[in-house]
Structure to design on (306 residues):
């Protein structure tokens, strides 16, 4: 049995070294340098090529190298394959701080004052009054963000596919309650998993329910957002601004309109960065579990996609 690491778009030398130190007796192979794919039972994956999966007849476990599993085509995996994701407690704190800081910056008009400073204008204004925030997605990260906003004086709503109950959070669920959830929001945060049903959920129809001064914060996946709908909503004063940390194409292309739009703040997918040592410990634990028949930790429901 062997383990295949297939993580594209990054240098994996440090990761491979840490994994080998943690698993000195395990054969680790790095894609595409793997001649015997039939021996692979465990794959550590991130943005793996689609053609890989059908070449793994004895696959037992797929471990995502991140909190999301949207890049893993669950419908074509061998029957019974377990899919797991990374859960890093520090990620929740980092994500909550990121969202809170941008919400407060919008409330206090920091972007406006930066623009006025560039023009040497002295133009004081009161802080924005709206404090109603909505969080799309109430998984581990979504719950942490909702709680942090609530703890800091925001009136918070949460929306999820299925019903949930959280202290101090008004919970909505299902398509029928999405418009009610969004109605009049001053801040809209997306932390949904990316599935067929959530692809493009941040669109003009949704934006028309929120307040005209609403700040959109997307820290989930770029594919959740209809980019043209956002530009149109911003240009036509249907939204107050947008903070975007994730994009359909990353890095964001140099000529993309988001770079220069006065109402858009761009950050390079840094809202919550996983600690490598934490990641390696979880991955190594699941590799040992795969080889010994023990339960895999942080598994997802492959039928739901999250």
């Amino acid at each position: 049995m062997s383990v295949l690491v297939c993580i594209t778009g990054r240098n994996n030398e440090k990761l491979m070294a840490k994994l080998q130190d943690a698993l000195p007796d395990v054969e680790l192979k790095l894609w595409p340098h793997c001649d015997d794919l039939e021996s692979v039972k465990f794959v550590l994956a991130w943005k793996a090529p689609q053609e890989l999966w059908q070449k793994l007849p004895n696959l037992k476990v797929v471990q995502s190298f991140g909190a999301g599993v949207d890049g893993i085509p669950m419908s074509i995996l061998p029957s019974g394959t377990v899919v797991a994701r990374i859960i890093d407690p520090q990620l929740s704190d980092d994500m909550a701080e990121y969202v809170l800081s941008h919400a407060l910056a919008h409330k206090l008009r920091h972007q406006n004052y930066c623009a006025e400073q560039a023009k040497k204008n002295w133009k004081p204004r009161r802080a924005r009054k709206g404090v109603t925030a909505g969080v799309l997605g109430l998984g581990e990260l979504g719950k942490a963000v909702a709680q942090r906003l609530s703890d800091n004086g925001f009136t918070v709503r949460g929306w999820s596919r299925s019903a949930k109950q959280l202290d101090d959070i008004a919970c909505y669920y299902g398509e029928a309650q999405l418009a009610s959830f969004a109605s009049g929001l001053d801040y809209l945060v997306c932390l949904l998993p990316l599935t067929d049903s959530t692809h493009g959920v941040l669109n003009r129809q949704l934006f028309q329910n929120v307040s005209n001064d609403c700040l959109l914060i997307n820290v989930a996946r770029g594919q959740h957002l209809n980019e043209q709908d956002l530009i149109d909503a911003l240009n036509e004063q249907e939204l107050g601004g947008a903070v975007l940390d994730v994009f359909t194409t990353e890095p964001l292309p140099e000529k993309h309109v988001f770079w220069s739009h006065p109402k858009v703040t761009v950050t390079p997918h840094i809202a919550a960065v996983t600690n490598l040592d934490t990641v390696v410990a979880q991955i190594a634990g699941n590799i040992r579990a795969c080889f010994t028949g023990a339960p895999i930790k942080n598994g997802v429901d492959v039928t739901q996609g999250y």
Observations:
- The chain has two domains: 2-88+274-292, 89-266.
- Helices lie at 13-22, 89-107, 110-118, 140-151, 178-182, 204-207, 227-235, 276-292.
